[in-house]
Structures are given as structure tokens and as C-alpha cells.
């Protein structure tokens, strides 16, 4: 798996940055200090930031560390402003599973002791399976998002018990919307179960699997792309043959992580007339989580309808 990396910043440099930041005006997304009476939350990505804001409403102030939909999340670089946000957080939401280890690294450089919600732990999945690798892209897994919703409302209620009823009400409404997404997956499965698909990375695999689709991409290809290593020529040819041989109904393409080999696969799909569905790791501008995932599902369905 490819992790979101943070440079090894000396503790002294981090502390110096905190001192400088605390006395300056800023832009960047620093909502973490929290207005009076609100809960300060830091999320590793804007996906989780949006979910927390949906549940917490005006009772929370949320900072999303990675929030640029045009950036490769794996190229994230830490800064003192992010460190400051973490030092003031009451609740921190991280994906876990090796995806965003920088959160723990940065927290260790502060004296803060916030509640830390690890989504991989909440999922209940085996993070060290006997076969294959754990898929850490959990925001594409709606059952895990239901579990996350419940845990977020519990944690927020523990921090701000006077707003607990609001958190429960918002969480229930959000869960209903998540269940709607699961029904969309069931509809896709009923119509297209067993259809082959290809991917550049395992980012959307939970969604594709739940929709009854079968990933036919050579495992060596997606693993190499995710690890940032070269794909063996024979494996690249095998992957491209999926399209020329009409063995898959679509290509799910990670738009935030591209390179010569993923672009070669993209070109092969387009040349063969195989539909391409763009997927991302962070929330696109102008969409909330449910709207984003419904758009993904609609795009998959539209591609398979031909």
C-alpha cells in the first residue's frame, strides 16, 4: 500500500512553527481552534472532515489536513499550521491501516491527548489478512461509513454532552443516506453482477465489489501502481489486453495518481472503446460525501449500460 507521507521534521522545528503560527493570521483551512462552545476536530482528509461536519453541524469546527482534489494525496507535505491544528484538537479522525500514518507522527510531537478515531479499527476488518493485502481505502465501503457515523456521534457526544441529541439526530439522517447508497449498489449488482472491470489502483474496490463487479486487473499491476514502482512489461501488456479483448466493461481510473503506465492503460481503454470512470481519493470541490459517492455509482451504472 502507498502511505500518505510526512517529512521527518525535528521536534524543535515543529515547536518553533507552532509558536510562529499561533501569533499570526492565516488562511489554509485552520478551523481547528474552535469557536467558543464548539468541538475542535481534525480529519486526515476532507472526506472524513465532511462526514464529521455533517454529523456535528454548527457544534463542530473541522480542519481537513488534505483537502485539495487536484493534488496526489501521497505527496502531502506537513506544515506547522497543521501541527498547530492537531495540538488544539479534541477529536482526531484518521483513516488508519497505514494510509495516513503522518497523523500519529505529528500528534507525537505535541502534548495534546485528543480522542483519536481510527477508521480501520472501526471497520472491524482484518488489517493483516493471510492472503492479499488490506484495502485501506475505507471511505468507499459504506458499511464501514455506517459504523464510523455511529462512532463519531458517540465521540462528539462524550466531548459535548449538551449537544448529544443533535449529534444523534444528524447521525441517524446521515445513516439513512448511506443506506440509500447501499441500495444503489444492490441495484447495480442486480443488473450487472459478474461483469469484469479494470482498475489502476484498489481505491474504489469496496464499491465495485459491493456492486457485484469482478476486478480482472492483474494484481501485479495495481500493486505496482499503488507502490509507485514500475509495472513489468508483460503485466502491462496483460492489462492492456483486457481492453482490446473486451474482457472488462469499464476502467476505474484514479485521477489523482497518474503516470506513464496508468496513462498507457487509459489510452488502451479509450482506443478499445471501453468506458473510463474517474475516481478520486479526496472529496471533489462542490460535493458532499453522499453526493460524491452517488455520482460515482451513477457513473459506474452509466458506463455499464453502454
TrEMBL record:
Keyword Transmembrane belongs to the record: no
Molecular functions (GO terms): metal ion binding
Main localisation: other
Family annotation (Pfam families): ZnuA (PF01297)
Cell location: Cell envelope
Membrane-spanning segments: none
Listed InterPro entries: Bact_metal-bind_prot9 (IPR050492), ZnuA-like (IPR006127)
Any GO BP annotation: metal ion transport
Record's GO cellular component terms: cell envelope
PROSITE patterns: PROKAR_LIPOPROTEIN
Entry keyword set: Metal-binding, Signal, Transport
Signal peptide: 1-27
Name the UniProt record assigns to this protein: Zinc/manganese transport system substrate-binding protein
Species in which this protein is naturally found: Microlunatus sagamiharensis
Amino acid at each position: 500500500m502507498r502511505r500518505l507521507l510526512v517529512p521527518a521534521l525535528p521536534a524543535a522545528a515543529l515547536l518553533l512553527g507552532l509558536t510562529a503560527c499561533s501569533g499570526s493570521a492565516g488562511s489554509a483551512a485552520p478551523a481547528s481552534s474552535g469557536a467558543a462552545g464548539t468541538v475542535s476536530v481534525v480529519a486526515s482528509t476532507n472526506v472524513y472532515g465532511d462526514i464529521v461536519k455533517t454529523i456535528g453541524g454548527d457544534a463542530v469546527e473541522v480542519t481537513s489536513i488534505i483537502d485539495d482534489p487536484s493534488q496526489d494525496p501521497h505527496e502531502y507535505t506537513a506544515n506547522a499550521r497543521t501541527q498547530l491544528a492537531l495540538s488544539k484538537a479534541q477529536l482526531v479522525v484518521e483513516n488508519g491501516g497505514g494510509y495516513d500514518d503522518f497523523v500519529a507522527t505529528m500528534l507525537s510531537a505535541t502534548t495534546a491527548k485528543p480522542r483519536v478515531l481510527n477508521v480501520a479499527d472501526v471497520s472491524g476488518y482484518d488489517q493483516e489478512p493471510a492472503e492479499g493485502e488490506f484495502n485501506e481505502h475505507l471511505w468507499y465501503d459504506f458499511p464501514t461509513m455506517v459504523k464510523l457515523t455511529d462512532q463519531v456521534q458517540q465521540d462528539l457526544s462524550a466531548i459535548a454532552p449538551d449537544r448529544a441529541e443533535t449529534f444523534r439526530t444528524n447521525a441517524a439522517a446521515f445513516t439513512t443516506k448511506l443506506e440509500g447508497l447501499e441500495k444503489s449498489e444492490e441495484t447495480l449488482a442486480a443488473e450487472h453482477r459478474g461483469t469484469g472491470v479494470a482498475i489502476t489502483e484498489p481505491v474504489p474496490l469496496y464499491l465495485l465489489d459491493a456492486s457485484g463487479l469482478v476486478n480482472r486487473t492483474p494484481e501485479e499491476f495495481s500493486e505496482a501502481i499503488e507502490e509507485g514502482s514500475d509495472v513489468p512489461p508483460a503485466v502491462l501488456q496483460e492489462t492492456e489486453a483486457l481492453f482490446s479483448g473486451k474482457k472488462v466493461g469499464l476502467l476505474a481510473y484514479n485521477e489523482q495518481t497518474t503516470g506513464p503506465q496508468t496513462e498507457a492503460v487509459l489510452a488502451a481503454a479509450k482506443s478499445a472503446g471501453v468506458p473510463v470512470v474517474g475516481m478520486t481519493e479526496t472529496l471533489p470541490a462542490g460535493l458532499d460525501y453522499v453526493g460524491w459517492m452517488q455520482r460515482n455509482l451513477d457513473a459506474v451504472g452509466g458506463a455499464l449500460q453502454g
